[in-house]
Amino acid sequence: MRFLIQSLITLICFGSFAASNPAPTPETISLEPVLDLLGGLGNAPPPDILWTPNPSPECAAINKGELQCCQGTLAGDLPLIQFLAALYGYKLNPNDVNGILCNDNLATCPGVKLCCQVTALNPLLSLYCQDYK
Predict the structure, then answer these.
(1) Residue closest to 63 by CA, chosen among 113, 120, 131, 126
(2) What is the tens place of the pLDDT at every residue in 53-101?
(3) DSSP secondary structure code for residue 60 in this structure
(4) What are the backbone dihedrals phi and psi of residue 83, each rounded to the nearest 5 degrees, phi first?
């Protein structure tokens, strides 16, 4: 009986002691200062090195870009696209169409054909595109 009472007292004391010290909660890290800094990078026009060096005659009347075959398109207001564009100093309009996984294999294009003005990030991304026909 004595052992049972000691065990019960120990359990009550230890249990209340443990309850008074809750587990520490992890601190959250704010990315806002980093995103603000990166957001400011896109205020200037993109460097000339980013503009396509090979404008296509097919795109002359559309946007003077390069005709690309892209596996998909992404809107300019997606956070990942805004981040990548800002990283390279390019500020996108939220209404921009951007190609993903683009190349110049137009003969057997399984995706969508786009006229893209910035192709320096190929094959990952082509920026500021418009539909071709």
Answers:
(1) 131
(2) 889 999 999 888 999 999 999 888 888 878 877 777 777 777 778 899 9
(3) T
(4) -65, -50
Three-class SS of residue 91? coil
- Give me the helices (H) in the chain, please: 2-20, 32-41, 79-87
Encoded tokens for 71 = 């596996």
Residue 3: what residue type? F
Single-letter residue type at 126 = S
Q: What is the pTM of this model?
A: 0.58
Spatial separation of the C-alpha atoms in residues 76 and 96, rounded to whole Å: 5
SS3 content of the chain, % helix, strand, coil (to 5): 35, 25, 45
Which two structure tokens, joined as six digits, stand for 122? Answer: 């190929």
Any residues with CB less than 8 A from the CB of 87 and at least 6 apart, and which? 38, 41
Cα–Cα distance for residue pair 82/123, rounded to 1 Å: 17
CB 88 within 8 Å of CB 46 = yes
Helices (H) and strands (E) counted in the chain, each on its own, are 3, 4
